[in-house]
């Protein structure tokens, strides 16, 4: 069997196999999905599977003479009401998603089993750079995060899922929702300079952290503006063509 993998998916292959089509043996039992994952490509990253010129599902059992094309997942990947959970290595990305108002669960001590369980229970998309984690059969939906820098990672997630943004509405620390709070209510927590220069405050309803626009607000506003541009420039697939893809930094004071 000959397998051609889309260029954007070849990073998952062993270096020696990235130059072109790959020859793979067939046992007559394994599904095409299993074969693709055995090459290193998580099915979460796969779009169309084509065998001998016709689309097939991952459960298709390939034969020895088959010619297979493995396409990348379509973008945008439309998941209504998309919510996320991130693995322990993506804490900065989690805070940035929260800054732009995206529901992003994160714990820096979460193990792999807990991540999969929480993703399934909360119908959250698991974001990770752990390929083995994405290949777990129990996981309902996940996504590989491209990029080594948080800016690139944020752009990748926004490009792929185009979630609705609501900047300044979530706590970067815990993901709770922020609510406006009178200055008099939080004034005892503030430094003299903040009392003098800031008038608008919000508080997290979950952890009680207090936020205001401080010295770093311009940098954060630039990050938010970039995120909004990224989402708005993605071409959305018309609703009649949609298919379900299977497989921080504000200032704060303590309460």
How would you describe the overall organization of this protein?
The chain is α/β, with parallel strands linked by helices and 255 residues long. It has eight helices and 13 strands. It has helices at residues 32-38, 91-99, 112-122, 131-134, 150-161, 183-186, 192-197, 217-232, and strands spanning 2-5, 22-23, 46-51, 54-55, 67-72, 84-86, 104-106, 125-128, 142-144, 178-181, 201-204, 210-212, 251-253. A five-stranded mixed β-sheet has the order 2-1-5-3-4, with no helix packed on it. Strands 7-6-8-9 form a four-stranded parallel β-sheet, sandwiched between helices. Strands 10-11-12-13 form a four-stranded antiparallel β-sheet. The model is unreliable at 237-255 (pLDDT under 50).
List the helices and strands and how they pair.
Elements (H helix, E strand, L loop, with lengths): L1 E4 L16 E2 L8 H7 L7 E6 L2 E2 L11 E6 L11 E3 L4 H9 L4 E3 L5 H11 L2 E4 L2 H4 L7 E3 L5 H12 L16 E4 L1 H4 L5 H6 L3 E4 L5 E3 L4 H16 L18 E3 L2
Parallel strand pairs: 1-5, 6-7, 6-8, 8-9
Antiparallel strand pairs: 1-2, 3-4, 3-5, 10-11, 11-12, 12-13
Helix pairs in contact: 2-5
Oligomer: single chain
Q: Can you give the helix content as a percent range? A: 25-40%
Number of helices: 8
Largest sheet: 5 strands, mixed
Strand order, biggest sheet?
Answer: 2-1-5-3-4
**Structural class estimated from helices and strands:** alpha/beta
Number of domains: 2
Give, in order, the helices and strands. EEHEEEEHEHEHEHEHHEEHE
């Amino acid at each position: 069997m000959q397998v051609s993998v889309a260029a954007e998916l070849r990073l998952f292959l062993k270096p020696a196999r990235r130059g072109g089509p790959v020859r793979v043996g067939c046992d007559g039992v394994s599904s095409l999905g299993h074969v693709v994952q055995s090459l290193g490509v998580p099915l979460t990253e796969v779009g169309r599977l084509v065998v001998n010129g016709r689309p097939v599902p991952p459960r298709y059992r390939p034969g020895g003479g088959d010619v297979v094309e493995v396409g990348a997942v379509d973008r945008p990947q439309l998941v209504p009401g998309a919510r996320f959970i991130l693995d322990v290595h993506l804490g900065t990305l989690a805070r940035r998603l929260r800054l732009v108002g995206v529901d992003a669960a994160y714990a820096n001590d979460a193990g792999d089993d807990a991540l999969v369980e929480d993703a399934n229970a909360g119908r959250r998309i698991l974001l990770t750079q752990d390929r083995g984690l994405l290949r777990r059969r129990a996981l309902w939906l996940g996504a590989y995060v491209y990029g080594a820098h948080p800016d690139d990672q944020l752009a990748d997630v926004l490009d792929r899922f185009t979630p609705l943004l609501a900047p300044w509405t979530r706590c970067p620390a815990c993901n709770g929702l922020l609510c406006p709070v009178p200055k008099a209510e939080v004034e005892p927590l503030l430094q003299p300079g903040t009392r003098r220069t800031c008038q608008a405050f919000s508080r997290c309803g979950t952890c009680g952290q207090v936020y205001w626009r401080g010295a770093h607000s311009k940098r954060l506003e630039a990050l938010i503006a970039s995120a909004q541009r990224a989402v708005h420039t993605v071409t959305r697939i018309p609703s009649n063509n949609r298919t379900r893809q299977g497989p921080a930094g504000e200032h704060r004071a303590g309460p």
